[in-house]
Amino acid sequence: MVARGLAEGNGSTEDAGATGEPTFAIAFGGGGARGLAHINVIEAMDELGIRPVAIAGSSIGAIMGAGMAAGMSGRDIHEYAVATLSRRAEIVARLWRLRPASFGEMFGGGIRLGQFNIERVLRNFLPDRIPDTFEELRIPLSVTATDFYGQREVPIANGDLFSAIGASAAIPALFRPVRRDDRILIDGGIYNPVPFDHLKHKAQFVIAIDVVGGPEGDIGRFPSSIDAMFGASQLMMQSIIATRLRTDPPAIFLRPSVARFGVLDFLRVEQVLRDSAGIKDELKRAVDAAITYAERREPE
């Protein structure tokens, strides 16, 4: 196992590599509540003594990546997530603080889906340890959003952090798009569900975690309209991931066991964490295998 920690702070790949230890970067994929499984991955990295030199994230992966980049341990994130999401009363109280300030704000333009302000949601639910800007993070972070009118992926790695992760997590029909730098931005998973390509050449080993999942259920039952919408999105994102894996795969690519959970199953945080706990051992074995393989290929 990798038992030694990597260089502290914002060190570059070259700085970490100069110590003679392997360097790692990690990409956390999007998938709504299924992305709570990323917490097990972060805990496993802590247990291995791995401090990534760079992090990338999409949607819920951008949120988890921000927590890790801010210096939170897997245990910190685990305890905060369970305390915040497993109690319905706590969620209701936080959502109440997000209510419209006036009837004009509530009904202006009519009642429409997708009008939750994701930036306000994040500020009410995320821990205080997550700073306001990328520049205050302890580990370099890149998040991906989708430029709605520009029809392209937008990587963001500087400036205001909450607008960036808000844009990355702005799932259509649930959250209002985010305006940033004169662009209208939505969910980063639409163009890049697991942004491991953002980490190319930044570390010796790139780890990618896919929590997109796919539609599950009885083949004899028609899905509801909501299930069909989210399921179609999953199928689209899996097609994108498969294409990217064929062209330039990361050193380690893992899928936690979370397919049976829905994108909004945040109240089932403890079940998600239990069901995906096996990813810890999977990651540890994969890290050992990747390092062993690399060492065998080195010239004598």
From TrEMBL:
<feature type="short sequence motif" description="GXGXXG">
    <location>
        <begin position="30"/>
        <end position="35"/>
    </location>
</feature>
<keyword id="KW-0443">Lipid metabolism</keyword>
<keyword id="KW-0378">Hydrolase</keyword>
<dbReference type="GO" id="GO:0016042">
    <property type="term" value="P:lipid catabolic process"/>
</dbReference>
<feature type="domain" description="PNPLA">
    <location>
        <begin position="26"/>
        <end position="200"/>
    </location>
</feature>
<feature type="short sequence motif" description="DGA/G">
    <location>
        <begin position="187"/>
        <end position="189"/>
    </location>
</feature>
<dbReference type="InterPro" id="IPR050301">
    <property type="entry name" value="NTE"/>
</dbReference>
<feature type="active site" description="Proton acceptor">
    <location>
        <position position="187"/>
    </location>
</feature>
<dbReference type="GO" id="GO:0016787">
    <property type="term" value="F:hydrolase activity"/>
</dbReference>
<feature type="short sequence motif" description="GXSXG">
    <location>
        <begin position="57"/>
        <end position="61"/>
    </location>
</feature>
<dbReference type="Pfam" id="PF01734">
    <property type="entry name" value="Patatin"/>
</dbReference>
<protein>
    <submittedName>
        <fullName>Patatin</fullName>
    </submittedName>
</protein>
<feature type="active site" description="Nucleophile">
    <location>
        <position position="59"/>
    </location>
</feature>
<dbReference type="InterPro" id="IPR016035">
    <property type="entry name" value="Acyl_Trfase/lysoPLipase"/>
</dbReference>
<keyword id="KW-0442">Lipid degradation</keyword>
<dbReference type="InterPro" id="IPR002641">
    <property type="entry name" value="PNPLA_dom"/>
</dbReference>
